[in-house]
Design a protein that fits this description.
The complex is a heterodimer of chains A (278) and B (172). With 278 residues, chain A is an all-alpha fold. Chain A has 13 helices and no strands. In chain A, helix 5 runs parallel beside helix 7, helix 7 runs antiparallel to helix 8 and helix 12 packs antiparallel against helix 13. Chain B is globular and about 40 Å long. Classes of the chains: A mainly alpha (278), B mainly alpha (172).
Chain lengths: 278, 172
């Protein structure tokens, strides 16, 4: 067993950052031990959903009369489920086979970047916070209005449609956050596996809702997993500023400035200096 | 009438569960849909091999095998970003006959857990929450969530293995 084998649970839970997950996949292809472990993790999860999830559903649906249904054995249920589910599965399969979306995922970075730019005013970024999708993470000048230039705007419907078709849910969430459509953004983000980037954007949602404690928990979680995640560093500094910790925020922005990221570094230096001023 | 109820309640849940699992594995929506599509196609093609037990577990095994195939194909591409060492299998022990696990068996295994582990397990596996979300909910460290989940799965597996041994069920 080597160190990477110990990451199979994090991989199965969607908790590895993209680079690590890619490396783990490469390892998994040749490691029979990890393949067996992954299979058992998926089996336990499927069993839990079926056994315990059913129990939860039954308790919720008790008032609708579901509890009056006869108790079936697992085998009986399995047969009934499959027989009943087959038309749905076939329909779903055909819908997928008939090409409702492309087999290979197009690069949506430029698409998100273009839509994100369109939501800002006069070339400004639409949010003061830093969103982690690659299309939104390029530096643009900060918005001059408090709520951000994207508030109240509507993302281009063509962009939303194309992102949906491409399966880029993170891109969709990015545009919803940028327009301050927080409920939609939350719904989409909730469906995604947790990665540092997604978790950062969930933290931005919390910040926009004024839930700074929850945002801080998420951001610190991101930085424990990836200490140099640039968007999380930025947002944590902003959060410190919003809490009134001017000295702490100034130090945090100064550290970001020292990283030398194009655009972000200059803005961070200016913010650090402003916050340090008496 | 009853089959209609199952169609309404079970089939969408099944597809949704497969999609959530596929998203975790592939980390993007389009690949996840491809994987679910392939899983359903293969499941329908080989349904005669499914004779008993949980359809969810059976399809999860189909999905697992397809995903491993995909990883193997990708391995031919120069990918690794971290240093790779010679792989050696971890000790996972015998694989129980997952298809034979009863609802009651799993409930007993989960009921035997300590309250914090059970809470973490249910929040993760049933509610689909991330480590960070669970940590925030329960006021524990994110690392604690991962460690507890790892140990919980071991305990559940050991519990089920013991019950199989008591029932005289052979292992793979």
């Amino acid at each position: 067993m080597n160190d990477i084998c110990g990451r199979v649970h994090e991989f199965a839970d969607g908790e590895l950052i993209e680079e690590s997950a890619g490396s783990f996949e490469w390892h998994l292809a040749a490691c029979s031990g990890c393949q067996g472990e992954l299979e058992s993790i998926l089996a336990i999860r499927a069993l839990a959903l079926e056994s315990l999830g059913d129990a939860r559903s039954r308790s919720v649906r008790g008032g609708l009369g579901a509890s009056a249904a006869p108790r079936l054995s697992r085998a009986q249920r399995a047969r009934r489920i499959f027989v009943a589910a087959t038309p749905v599965l076939v329909a779903a399969s055909f819908a997928l086979v008939l090409g409702l979306r492309p087999r290979t995922r197009p690069d949506t970075t430029a698409m998100v970047a273009q839509a994100f730019d369109a939501l800002g005013r006069r070339g400004e970024r639409p949010t003061l916070e830093r969103l982690a999708h690659a299309g939104a993470d390029r530096h643009r000048p900060p918005p001059r209005v408090m709520r951000g230039g994207g508030a109240g705007k509507v993302p281009p419907s063509e962009a939303l449609l194309r992102l949906e078709e491409a399966g880029d849910q993170h891109g969709l969430a990015t545009l919803h956050v940028a327009t301050r459509d927080l409920d939609r953004a939350e719904t989409v983000l909730a469906q995604l596996p947790s990665t540092p980037e997604v978790e950062n954007d969930r933290a931005v949602l919390e910040m926009k809702r004024g839930r700074l404690d929850a945002a801080e928990v998420r951001l610190r979680g991101v930085l424990r997993a990836r200490p140099d995640q640039p968007a999380a560093l930025w947002n944590l500094a902003l959060l410190q500023e919003q809490r009134g910790d001017r000295a702490g925020a100034s130090r945090a922005f100064a550290a970001i400035a020292a990283r030398g990221e194009p655009g972000w570094s200059v803005e961070a230096r200016r913010r650090a200096d402003d916050l340090a001023a008496p | 009438m009853e089959s209609e109820r199952w169609k309404d309640l079970a089939a969408p849940n099944l597809l949704n569960s497969l999609l959530v699992e596929a998203r975790r594995l592939t980390r993007n929506g389009a690949d996840a849909k491809d994987l679910v599509q392939d899983t359903i196609e293969r499941g329908l093609r080989h349904y005669d091999r499914f004779s008993y037990g949980s359809i969810g577990v059976w399809l999860s095994r189909v999905m697992h095998n397809l995903f491993i195939d995909r990883c193997r194909r990708r391995r031919t591409e120069p990918l690794p970003l971290e240093t790779e060492t010679v792989p050696a299998p971890p000790p996972v022990g015998p694989t129980p006959h997952w298809m034979r696990v009863s609802d009651e068996g799993l409930r007993q295994a989960v009921a035997a857990l300590d309250p914090l582990s059970r809470d973490i397990f249910e929040k993760h596996e049933l509610e689909g929450k991330s480590y960070a979300e669970i940590a925030a909910d329960l006021g524990v460290a994110t690392a604690t969530v991962g460690t507890r989940l790892f140990r919980t799965r071991q305990k559940i597996r050991e519990f089920l293995l013991r019950s199989f041994e008591q029932d005289g069920v052979a292992h793979e």
